[in-house]
Amino acid sequence: MSDTRRRVKVYTLNEDRQWDDRGTGHVSSTYVEELKGMSLLVRAESDGSLLLESKINPNTAYQKQQDTLIVWSEAENYDLALSFQEKAGCDEIWEKICQVQGKDPSVEVTQDLIDESEEERFEEMPETSHLIDLPTCELNKLEEIADLVTSVLSSPIRREKLALALENEGYIKKLLQLFQACENLENTEGLHHLYEIIRGILFLNKATLFEVMFSDECIMDVVGCLEYDPALAQPKRHREFLTKTAKFKEVIPITDSELRQKIHQTYRVQYIQDIILPTPSVFEENFLSTLTSFIFFNKVEIVSMLQEDEKFLSEVFAQLTDEATDDDKRRELVNFFKEFCAFSQTLQPQNRDAFFKTLAKLGILPALEIVMGMDDLQVRSAATDIFSYLVEFSPSMVREFVMQEAQQSDDDILLINVVIEQMICDSDPELGGAVQLMGLLRTLIDPENMLATNNKTEKSEFLNFFYNHCMHVLTAPLLTNTSEDKCENDNIVGPNKNSTICPDNYQTAQLLALILELLTFCVEHHTYHIKNYIMNKDLLRRVLVLMNSKHTFLALCALRFMRRIIGLKDEFYNRYITKGNLFEPVINALLDNGTRYNLLNSAVIELFEFIRVEDIKSLTAHIVENFYKALESIEYVQTFKGLKTKYEQEKDRQNQKLNSVPSILRSNRFRRDAKALEEDEELWFNEDEEEEGKAVVAPVEKSKPEDDFPDSYEKFMETKKAKESEDKENLPKRTSSGSFKFTFSHSTSAANGANSTNNKSVVAQTPPATSNGSSSKTTNLATSVTATKGSLVGLVDYPDDEEEDEEEETSPRKRPRLGS
Q1: pLDDT at residue 793 greater than cutoff 70
Q2: Does residue 427 sit in helix, strand or coil?
Q3: CA-based nearest residue to 604, from 594, 616, 615, 614
Q4: Residue pair 108/67 in contact by the 8 Å Cβ criterion
Q5: CATH 2.30.29.30: which residues of the chain?
Q6: CB–CB of 811/625 below 8 Å?
Q7: Nearest 5°: CA angle at 207, between 260 and 227?
């Protein structure tokens, strides 16, 4: 259909008194048999479907506003509006409506708006439809006029009649002339009356009156009247602000005079609504609904007019990205775009879709990349706001751009890395900008809003890109603040333990908490990508260094990260935790917290309670075998006793199974199962090494997987007696303090990118009970690292390992690994 006269948008008013766009189509008026009368029909221009079918009822009040709008109420609390592309089309349909209702098309409203109670009150009265008689517009009548305007506000029918009277007699312009006279005469009482009158006229909620009041000729006098609030000792200076302080900046000259006028008008009306008029009470909130609609439709028009002027937008982009543009000019350009995007939020989804596609086509993302990296804080802040509009509108569009960009640019200048760097370098002590950017990053890496099409899977492509090109930038502050030289201090036990170097700076701690929040989100949603990254970087060990932070919120963030990992109940993670002895910093934190009953205490206990309730066997065995002595004195919860009980029950179950199997089959079965599991595990880690470098937790040549701990335990018991004399010299020696000294080996080469194995010291919390029944709180356990053939490192190193290599090859039995 090419007839643009009949082209309309259909709007409905929602519960929040905002207009919702129901679609664009072409309107016609025709007789509909089902409705038994002339009706308005709107068919969608896209597919011809019926957007609106509304009978023109003889008693419905239709209003014509701004020459191109027809508004009416279909039922209680259901308002409709038709916004015409052309005035001629609006006039044509208006004539049809007036024809059905027997009205003159020159009227702006076809019926008096009456509520039910008033209808009943007036139906028995003689003809009262004549207009309200207004007092003559003179200075000595101002008080009478003010009383009249105030008195009609409670009655819808009288509001309508007053509005018609004001409109017909050109009364508003006469009132504004009186205002000028009062101001010249400094007639304070008259000015106070005019304030009440103008405020009351605004509350009449009539679009036709707004068009007069907000015209270029009248609006500043209307603002002037509203300065003289009787409640204020001194009048406000709103006109001074609007004319002198508020400057209209044209970043690129706007040649369209209608557009300029519309922008000025919208700014001033918004100022009246937001600044001058008091916040309406519950009883007044609907008085200004038409004012809200007036601003809304103005903004839609402004965005549409600017969007259609591609020459204007192209010029803005050209200057924004031009290196020759000076800083002040660029700041103005960015602020213009920020406001432009804010205006676009008034558009309905399909119009907003077209708006952002226009911006994308013109190159908004490359332009943002340039301005987000600038030194000017104001420019960066505005650019962040624009970026947030784009991410909120279409995360996929942003993701697609950065992946294409990665093929041509270095990692340093990728848009996402620029965003991460802005987050890391936020100078605000409260990190307001960083919090906003972290939210945007989370939206971008959220698999929930990633598309899977037949041709490609956005999720796998983007996550591969993110972990290869961006993750190292995100984790850099975390790895720097928990680096090896700092981590070594982490192993100091006793009175010096709290001297561990942890980020004492509040701002740094806040930043690390944000990064940890994002990483915790990744653990929950990214499965194998984040798993490989944690294993390769030994990331959990680094994070747990922060359990020593003096900022409890940061320690809790670190704990939450570990809790999410354990919550996945993934045996790869469980093996990583037990082999790395990563419960040790958590238990240290619990013991250091002492008897204080606080969030840290509750969170740590909840972690262990989860392991007990979910019966995670590998972790239960590790905790009981290594840390039970330190924890058995904690009796105000039954968690740790419960873990011991679970451990012993499982041990008994395995004993019964073993007793029912002949000894020869038993030993063979265990050898076969252990080997099969070791081969699987080794294969998995080797695959990781090929993809992302050397795994931190190197495959252990002859270790048992922790989820089979009862088998390992029985195998240990079985071999213990036979090997006791042979292994005596290799068993842990009791130190002078009465505690045991264990030796653990860890490969951390992937964490620092080196190929060699680095020394790493760990504490195993296994002090024996002292003579008075209490347990020693912490135990210093030295560790050493021994480089082994290839990349394989044993969990426990024995002094005579080399001598026994040959014996192990021929012996049917393997030495039990005490450290596992």
Answers
A1: no
A2: coil
A3: 594
A4: no
A5: 4-101
A6: no
A7: 75
Q: Please state the rounded mean pLDDT for residues 733-751.
A: 39
Q: pLDDT tens, 407-418?
A: 777 777 788 999
Around Cβ 219, how many Cβ atoms within 10 Å? 21
Q: Is 798 helix (H, G, I), strand (E, B) or coil?
A: coil
Whether the CB-CB separation of 187 and 139 falls below 8 Å is answered with yes
Tokens found for residue 468 = 């290869």
355, 347 contact by CB (below 8 A): yes
Place of tokens 């004492």: 504
Q: Report yes or no on whether pTM surpasses 0.85.
A: no
The answer to whether 786 and 745 are in contact (CB under 8 A) is: yes
Tokens of 210: 């707004």
418 Cβ contact partners less than 8 Å away, ≥ 6 residues apart: 369, 372, 373
The pLDDT of residue 679: 53
Q: Rounded to whole angstroms, how far apart are CA atoms 707 and 572? A: 10
In angstroms, rounded to a whole number, what is the distance separating the alpha carbons of residues 699 and 624?
24
The predicted-structure confidence for 342-378, as pLDDT tens digits, reads as follows 888 878 888 888 888 888 888 888 888 888 888 888 8
Q: Identify the residue with better confidence: 55 or 686.
A: 55
Say which amino acid occupies 478: L
Contact present, 376 and 331 (Cβ < 8 Å): yes
Fold of 4-101: PH-domain like (2.30.29)
Residue 234: CB atoms within 10 Å: 8
